[in-house]
Amino acid sequence: MQKNDMAVIEITDIGVGGEGIGKIDGYTLFVKDAVIGDRAEVKVIKAKKNYGYARLMKVIEPSPYRVEPRCRFARQCGGCQIQAMSYDRQLVFKEQKVRGDLERIGGFAPELIDRVMEPIVGMEDPFGYRNKAQFPFGTDKEGNPVTGFYAGRTHDIIANTDCALGAPVNQDILETILAFMRKYNIPAYDEKTGKGLIRHVLIRYGFTTNEIMVCLVVNGNTIPHVRELTDDLVRIPGMTSITMSVNTKRTNVIMGDMYEVLWGQGYITDYIGEIRYQISPLSFYQVNPAQTEKLYSLALEYADLKGGETVWDLYCGIGTISLFLAQKAGQVYGVEIVPQAIDDARKNARINGIENAEFFVGKAEEVLPEYYERRQMDGADRNEQKQMDVEPDRLKRTAHADVIVVDPPRKGCDAALLETIVKMAPEKVVYVSCDPATLARDLKILCENGYELKRVRAVDQFPMTVHVETICKLTRNFTL
Ligand code: SAH
């Protein structure tokens, strides 16, 4: 195959990025936007020795899994990769991805996977689920302000105020801001020149409370006529917080370091299950609250707490899982690298009256091993003193955990952390993962060191995209 060759192929597989994969005489072609089951005409755009990339030119015979995308920009936009695939098929794809990684990377036997894997948790209505959106602003050829999303792999803005994954109220907010910019000639920021004012708007919506937050990210210290803008925005029912974040740096980072309140308060409130969270413009918060509740309920089920347990929640963010588990545990310890997230975690514990959760700032792979080593040394001292009548209570205080929960970023857990988990030997490990490949790698290590994989379940946190979240339960199969 060579560049610019045309070919007709059957799409027989799905790649990690959601692209279709087909073969011609043993030569593999990756075709963006093609759906598994399509028969399509494609044009080669890049040819390597054994494989190449092709553009979808025409669907000759559509796949039974092909559907009309709800968003007319689905193909150009970088946000959704698989909107043209039926939702049922998306779920099968995600489940197979987890299964495939467990087999290939984790080395788990297919029979074992059959036994431990539970059906993926999908959404009833897989659209309009995101509680957070960050829209960039730009200027079109006629000089009008526009907002929307970046086209895949570029910073070209596709003008669209009606994203199918976002809360419906986003459109009203965006149109209000655009109208204000047109009326007062307020320029959008231009990445190339570093000039212009309005860079981004962050919108957050509390599905359980209907509270709305709007945060304007600006390249300057003030917004001219800002009162008029806030007057227009507060007409939207649910408006709770309007803030401004100054970001004058020429970077891809969206938010500034701080924010100031323009109207209302600096945060909105939302519930996951019984737990109430205060979310500010700079807080991390799960973007799909409906699925998050299902995921955390599974974490609770997998942890199977009876009441007195000591639980560690590593990579705890703003303490979402920690607070969820604290409802049933004796004591929870959370560890997180971002100090502001720990401030939020402590505040969220307080507003929910949770007193059995304690939080540490630091790297999980440093905090836990240090804690363990220190406690081991203390424990050794205490053993020596045992004959000398030390209070029995203190003797029990070695580095102990009944359950360890980890929810690492995509790169997975550090080897030093896995080593400490094995040394601490909790009865159960609950692993929440946003990347099945690193999950499989880490599970392999835990299972080579005395743990057994008991339950695995994928949860679809991000319908229409290729991302998949997985939760697993492992139990210790050695006695202490
Ligand atoms: N469990 C949380 C957040 C999970 S996202 C929730 O469900 O909301 C992963 C978190 O790990 C992020 O908050 C990130 O800041 C944090 N993180 C990344 N590397 C880390 C490390 N080495 N040690 C501790 N936390 C880390």
Automatic annotation (TrEMBL):
<feature type="domain" description="TRAM">
    <location>
        <begin position="1"/>
        <end position="58"/>
    </location>
</feature>
<dbReference type="InterPro" id="IPR029063">
    <property type="entry name" value="SAM-dependent_MTases_sf"/>
</dbReference>
<dbReference type="InterPro" id="IPR010280">
    <property type="entry name" value="U5_MeTrfase_fam"/>
</dbReference>
<keyword id="KW-0808">Transferase</keyword>
<dbReference type="GO" id="GO:0070041">
    <property type="term" value="F:rRNA (uridine-C5-)-methyltransferase activity"/>
</dbReference>
<dbReference type="InterPro" id="IPR030390">
    <property type="entry name" value="MeTrfase_TrmA_AS"/>
</dbReference>
<dbReference type="InterPro" id="IPR002792">
    <property type="entry name" value="TRAM_dom"/>
</dbReference>
<feature type="active site" description="Nucleophile">
    <location>
        <position position="434"/>
    </location>
</feature>
<keyword id="KW-0489">Methyltransferase</keyword>
<dbReference type="GO" id="GO:0070475">
    <property type="term" value="P:rRNA base methylation"/>
</dbReference>
<dbReference type="InterPro" id="IPR012340">
    <property type="entry name" value="NA-bd_OB-fold"/>
</dbReference>
<comment type="similarity">
    <text>Belongs to the class I-like SAM-binding methyltransferase superfamily. RNA M5U methyltransferase family.</text>
</comment>
<protein>
    <submittedName>
        <fullName>23S rRNA (Uracil(1939)-C(5))-methyltransferase RlmD</fullName>
        <ecNumber>2.1.1.190</ecNumber>
    </submittedName>
</protein>
<feature type="binding site">
    <location>
        <position position="336"/>
    </location>
    <ligand>
        <name>S-adenosyl-L-methionine</name>
    </ligand>
</feature>
<keyword id="KW-0949">S-adenosyl-L-methionine</keyword>
<feature type="active site">
    <location>
        <position position="434"/>
    </location>
</feature>
<feature type="binding site">
    <location>
        <position position="407"/>
    </location>
    <ligand>
        <name>S-adenosyl-L-methionine</name>
    </ligand>
</feature>
<feature type="binding site">
    <location>
        <position position="315"/>
    </location>
    <ligand>
        <name>S-adenosyl-L-methionine</name>
    </ligand>
</feature>
<dbReference type="InterPro" id="IPR030391">
    <property type="entry name" value="MeTrfase_TrmA_CS"/>
</dbReference>
<dbReference type="Pfam" id="PF05958">
    <property type="entry name" value="tRNA_U5-meth_tr"/>
</dbReference>
<dbReference type="Pfam" id="PF01938">
    <property type="entry name" value="TRAM"/>
</dbReference>
<feature type="binding site">
    <location>
        <position position="286"/>
    </location>
    <ligand>
        <name>S-adenosyl-L-methionine</name>
    </ligand>
</feature>
